[in-house]
Amino acid sequence: MSSIKHLKRAQIACSNYHYIKYSLPYFLNSMVNLGQHLIEFYAASPHLSVEDATYNSVKVLKRELDAREIKVCCLTQEQCVYPINIACEDDAIRERSTQTFIKTIEFAAQLQAPYAQIVCGRGYFDNPEEDAWKRSAESLSRIVDKASRYGVTMVIEAASYNTTNVVYDSHRMRRMIDEIGSPNLKGMLDTCAVAMAGEDIREDLALLGQDMVHLHFADGTPLGHFIPGEGKLPLIDYLTALDEVRYTGAIPFEIYNRLYDFEPEGTMKKCLEFMYQVIPE
């Protein structure tokens, strides 16, 4: 019998990270096939390129979501593969990156998504981290101001040090949230990033407290973003820790791994089966 007492299946969210070789209608219909009504939407080509999308194209997407009774818990634009970097030394790149997030906020509001995800960028690794921090905080302050006016909350993800040298662990996330000091800036955890940073998820949850509002759930070694059971992470213990603090946010799968691109629905079904064994109702 599962020891989970408070987490609910309604918190489980699917996502389109590993559906990108398939059309958007295929993904949306797959959610219907799987009986899912909550998703994290990965805003990337070909499903939704933020830089190319328009108000009208997002309006069509919202209509398609509504027709299937699907809600978006978080809009997560691509910002690791694309040249999006709010801490970049190059002023033009940094400004374009900031403007892309501002556009993402507008789309999140249009989709009625409460959250939009952000990574705090990176500076050159041969330059001082504090300089990158200052640039990131300046950009983030502008982005969060925009989010507050649109009723959207930005959630910081502490990506691994391979990706960023600004916010790469929960302590730096806590520092950035406190420095910006806005109710429209919160934090999130990624199970692979927690393991990569060598952190204890219970300590992270205590550190972030009510500011921990979102999650990326995947297996890893510690990286990898595998489906549950194909990595080595203590996923059931992670869920138990969330249950202990009565976490009420969404639990989206971030299966950001090209291994699964050719059988996306079967992959998502395996993720759901794992969760259904752990979360009773």
UniProtKB/TrEMBL annotation:
Pfam families linked to this entry: AP_endonuc_2 (PF01261)
Keywords recorded for this protein, A-Z: Isomerase
GO molecular function terms noted in the UniProt entry: isomerase activity
Domain of life of the source: Bacteria
Domain Xylose isomerase-like TIM barrel: 34-276
Parts of the chain that traverse the membrane: none
PANTHER family (UniProt xref): HYDROXYPYRUVATE ISOMERASE (PTHR12110), XYLOSE ISOMERASE-LIKE TIM BARREL DOMAIN-CONTAINING PROTEIN (PTHR12110:SF21)
Protein name, per record: Sugar phosphate isomerase/epimerase
Organism: Flintibacter faecis
Taxonomic placement: Bacteria, Bacillati, Bacillota, Clostridia, Eubacteriales
